[in-house]
Amino acid sequence: MTETSPQPNFDRYDQRIAEAMLSGMALTGLPDYLGIVVTEVGPGKMTAELDVRKEFLNPFGTAHGGVLAGLADHILGAVLLPLIPSGAWPASNEFKINYLAPVYEGTLRASSEVISLSKRIAVMRIDAFNNSRLVGAAQGTVTISAPRAGQA
Amino acid sequence: MTETSPQPNFDRYDQRIAEAMLSGMALTGLPDYLGIVVTEVGPGKMTAELDVRKEFLNPFGTAHGGVLAGLADHILGAVLLPLIPSGAWPASNEFKINYLAPVYEGTLRASSEVISLSKRIAVMRIDAFNNSRLVGAAQGTVTISAPRAGQA
Amino acid sequence: MTETSPQPNFDRYDQRIAEAMLSGMALTGLPDYLGIVVTEVGPGKMTAELDVRKEFLNPFGTAHGGVLAGLADHILGAVLLPLIPSGAWPASNEFKINYLAPVYEGTLRASSEVISLSKRIAVMRIDAFNNSRLVGAAQGTVTISAPRAGQA
Amino acid sequence: MTETSPQPNFDRYDQRIAEAMLSGMALTGLPDYLGIVVTEVGPGKMTAELDVRKEFLNPFGTAHGGVLAGLADHILGAVLLPLIPSGAWPASNEFKINYLAPVYEGTLRASSEVISLSKRIAVMRIDAFNNSRLVGAAQGTVTISAPRAGQA
Q1: I need a labelling partner for B6 at 20 to 30 A (CA). Which of A29, B45, C94, D85 fits?
Q2: What is the DSSP string of A16-40?
Q3: CATH topology for B15-145?
Q4: Residues in B touching D123 (Cβ below 8 Å)
Q5: ipTM of this model?
Q6: Which of D57, D64, D71 is the best mutation test for C, with the most CBs of C within 10 A?
Q7: Does the reported pTM lie above 0.80?
Q8: pLDDT tens, residue by residue, B40-76
Q9: Which of B60, C144, B99, B129 lies closest to A76, judged by CA?
């Protein structure tokens, strides 16, 4: 790692899990409502997007902040799935998000990058783009725990 | 204000707006999907809740973090509505959330409190409870701007 | 715990450690430069203050943000000392701070409150006052680990 | 701007201010104590470093978190100086920092990058390295205001 590239090395990267993420694992709950689609997965990186539907808009024609926060929360932990042992689960501890511009109808795409990973804790950064404009930046922490131990 | 009570004084508090919030202004977008209901409004404080429906749950029986983040984002700005001039609009700049415990089926209730308010910027703190257990704590910044200027 | 009081119960509270903190354990590093003095310690709560000396001020007569950030970081972890097993150490994972008003010469006092505590992770909130005005609000996470494992 | 480069374009970049920053403007307060030296300045980017002196260390041989937080807070706003109108001043609103690894004796170097800039508000990301290891990541908001209006 050089000082210009904060991405750490990863001991493990399970290509099959990456492929399962791309082929569209069945979504449940909020990600299903939001229509999140995973478009790229790599070691310590992933990108997902959703269609900003009319029903996400407030009367001013912009999406509620929770749409972006929900997408960010989703990829905050999901980027870890190919990196962690089978049966382990990423549970979000916390994140912080800056809203940089309004989100309009169109595509909302966000990328998550692992900048620090130990056995139990990982830290990620997230960029979000709406119709190619940077609209959000987030940073957060995930605990790597056994299934059922936390919040997915 | 004493050192034990960080709540500032407010120059303005519009009871009619508070009542409109309580009587259930028509929700759109994500808040409508989440089923957010405002239960208390006061000067610089508000509480809202939602029913954690089965469809919000992941396969482990806990709600996606975006449900709590969406609720938090909603009350982060809405608490300002009775405090700001007519026609002004609260646009979320940023917030940070700590997930403290998993969210299960039942009621998810969150309160927002204004701890700092100037003409253009306000800072709020949020507590969230699921079935009376503290499950989340958030803190964030909102810019007070004219309608259509930002993200609601 | 009621919904109006997010303070959890604590299994352990070592009064001798609290008294040692109050009697002025020798400070090193930045806390010594800042002149941090612990003024109150209780179960899951502590208060510390410092004298905003002329040398902390910038040319506009206000203290550098790092003074408040340094004080906040200090009490973020120190509040845990009476609550955790002997030999364990609180290491800051992350925190977020909002600067609410400028800090002038005088007293800068900050209180830390534990809002969530498990064996390994604790979350705290911090309020800071300068000459009785609320000037900062912070929230952060600390990992409870064995000595030498992290950043104090 | 492409989706892989979140750096915005800047209307203004004052090379003389950048050179003054590099030639060592007189530091006051905490930055002087910390011995912060600016090593690179460019449009929307800057790097500064400090020598982690023995006096910054706690008994475990690691630097207090406030050293890194103080450095981060400093470059959070300073990176804006060449970009904003003469007489304007960057005042930190808030920032969030993740501590990724302990900071030992040696060099602590941090870079700040502007990811969003409007007339009144800017958002920056910060990476910090200690002896070439990534030790911190921060993200924060700065209000651009007239002199004396805020916290430097």
Answers
A1: C94
A2: HHHHHHHT-PPP-HHHHHHT-EEEE
A3: Thiol Ester Dehydrase; Chain A (3.10.129)
A4: 94
A5: 0.91
A6: D64
A7: yes
A8: 999 999 999 999 999 899 888 999 999 999 999 999 9
A9: B99
